[in-house]
User: Fold this.
Amino acid sequence: MRLFIADYSAGLLQKRYIVAELPKLLFANDTFSLAVCSHLLFLYSDLLSLEFHLASVLELSRVAHEVRIFPLTGLDCEPSPHLAPLQAELPRHGLRVEIAKVNYQLQRNGDKMMKIQKIS
Assistant:
């Protein structure tokens, strides 16, 4: 987070930070090696539908080889109700899903991320 904050102003000037909006991104397929979605998907499960989550993850997976989503809890600090359905659905789209523990926590129960990779 410190690296991002320190880089943000220069990154904006150099156009390395681009405003975009899920669930539709204007990037070409496989533009990035990694896409990170922090504090949007899963966190707002009460406001964003399962369909929105699925469309967003598929779109992130279209533009990046690997996607990481953090945290996996809602604002209530409980696991998102969309987590299990996505874990079941994503392999049907040729994606491997892994839940990984992380070494940081910004909210109670928020110490896991979802890693999604294209199956070669």
Notes: The chain has one domain: 23-118. The CA atoms of residues 20 and 64 lie 14 Å apart. The radius of gyration is 15 Å.
